Amino acid sequence: MLTFRRALVAAVFFIAVLFLTTRSSSPAASAAAVEYPKVQPGAEAARQKSQTTASSRQKAADDQVVQNGGHQGGPPKQKPMKDMSRMTLYEKLAYQFPYDVETKFPAYIWQTWKWTPAHGEFTFREQEATWTEQHPGFIHEVITDQVAVHLLRLLYGSVPEVLEAYEALPLPVLKADFFRYLILLARGGIYSDIDTYAIRSALEWVPESVPRDQIGLVIGIEADPDRPDWKDWYSRRIQFCQWTIQSKPGHPVLREVVSRITEQVLKRKRAGSLKDVVDKDVIEFTGPALWTDIIFGYFNDERYFDMENSVGLIDWKNFTGMETARRVGDVIVLPITSFSPGVQQMGAKDYDDPMAFVKHDFEGMSCFPATSTKSWLKLTNDVTGTWKPESERHIGEQ
């Protein structure tokens, strides 16, 4: 007989069997069956904020690595200070204005004159404007004598002997020569005399076949006088132009020319002979003769060129009669047509030639040495005979 007690026991037994049967047929500890603790109010927002903060910190760290040139572990170590009192002048300039050929040519145009274009007596507006028109986006400055002094004090305050030499120069033309080297050494860019016209942009000066990150200096030939009496008119058989120069900061040629001028000026100052420098001495002292000698010295300097494997010294024979740009190491040498088109002698072609880049009117001759003026005016109107290029040696690219 089924009593209440027996019915209750049977019900409990049935429920127990059903529970055990259901549990044994369920997946054991599956990932989907795992229940995570419920998130407390506000905890999810805190977790997301923490993740965002960590992400921001990582991004900032990554950005810092990029700014540091890819160096992890904080910013790169600063260049240690050196005792410059024990350095030579050349070493001081190398330390203050390091040279990196892989950088871009700075977008500066430097010119000098007695007045700026804003002054009523400035008479080179047409020439000056061509440089701005051909070089949109460049910083174009016309520096007066007063501004030059303050600018150089800012740039060369750590090399006081350079400032002493500049201020000691007795002639304006000497300071004009020295300034172009100083500004290009410190800042780079283009220097060109105020009476020059930019025919084509400087972006065309370096041939397309030459990587610009392998060139640090662009120069042109001023004179290539193939005539018996060339010494009566020029100081060098091949003379490089210094009325237009393009360079990257710190180039060794500029470093050497600044060192040479500074040392010679201070030597003459101490000897009391600086006042004896006159117009006819300018070409040798700060002008194209000195400039040419230092460039040839650089081309044959074993510190920069492999002279052991060279076919011979690089001299004027390698450049006479050239009509296209030529590369020597990190220097581009342009033919006479590039910076002296239309002079109608020494093989120079006209202004519409593809290699004509800068036109020089020689209107600022009052600040040029008399010998240079005389040579250009005389040779331009003289019959020089047949111009004949001489044999050229191979110039290997270093």
Automatic annotation (TrEMBL):
Biased composition (Polar residues): 48-58
Region Disordered: start-end pairs: 40-82
Signal peptide: 1-24
One GO MF term: alpha-1,6-mannosyltransferase activity
Pfam family, one: Gly_transf_sug
One GO CC annotation: mannan polymerase complex
Predominant subcellular localization, coarse grouping: membrane
Lineage top rank: taxon: Eukaryota
Keywords: Glycosyltransferase, Golgi apparatus, Membrane, Signal, Signal-anchor, Transferase, Transmembrane, Transmembrane helix
GO biological process, alphabetically ordered: protein N-linked glycosylation
Cellular localisation: Endomembrane system; Golgi apparatus membrane
Entry keyword annotation includes RNA-binding: no
Membrane-topology descriptor: Single-pass type II membrane protein; Single-pass membrane protein
Family membership: Belongs to the glycosyltransferase 32 family.
Database matches in PANTHER family: INITIATION-SPECIFIC ALPHA-1,6-MANNOSYLTRANSFERASE (PTHR31834)
Protein's name according to its UniProt entry: Glycosyltransferase Family 32
